[in-house]
Amino acid sequence: MNNLTKFIIYKPVNEVFEAFVDPGKIGGFWFSSSSDRWETGKTITLRYDEYNAQIDIKVLEVKLNKKIVFNWNANGEGHLVTISLMELDHASTRIEVNEEGFNENDDDLALQLLDNKEGWVFMLTCLKGYLENGINTLRTGLAKD
User: Is there a contact between 130 and 27 (Cβ–Cβ < 8 Å)?
Assistant: First the structure.
């Protein structure tokens, strides 16, 4: 079972791609920090300072300005996420985030899918604000209580 989220970002595809893979940029819209540049085969530590949390992900595939594939768990047991980028024209990009690995037999599947979708929509909204308008404070505004 998968969950697919799509957005259009009015920036060139290379700028959208770099926002994810450049550890100096990811803090503007998603995690507080990334331990390294995202490249195929690397294990990356992502920090959320606001929640005193971190996670190690395994980057499985990176295609320049096209695709990023990672596993939420560095040992390969977590959900698989594919971020696909499609250049619409020189100034806009379609981004698709597909997360796979949900258990169709889980009693809480609907709640998991809704929570997951909320997370991706929020992150992509933060990305849009960051890249299109230079707003880097949206990422700290989600209240989960």
Answer: no
- β-bridge pairing 33-34 and 80-89: unpaired
Using a 10 angstrom Cβ sphere, with 0-12 exposed, 13-18 middle and 19 or more buried, the burial of residue 93 is: buried
Give me the pLDDT at residue 145, please: 61
Dist CA 74 CA 71 (whole Å)? 7
Could you tell me the pLDDT band of residue 133, with boundaries at 50, 70 and 90? Answer: very high
Which residues, 6 or more positions from 60, have their beta carbon under 8 angstroms from its beta carbon? 40, 41, 69, 70, 71, 80
Question: What's the one-letter identity of residue 6?
Answer: K
The verdict on pTM exceeding 0.85 is yes
Contact indicator for 84, 67 with CB cutoff of 8 Å? yes
Distance CA 76, CA 60 (A): 10
Q: Which two tokens stand for residue 64?
A: 């320049």
Cα gap 103→142, rounded to integer Å: 26
How many degrees, rounded to 5, is the angle at CA 39 between CA 58 and CA 114?
A: 50
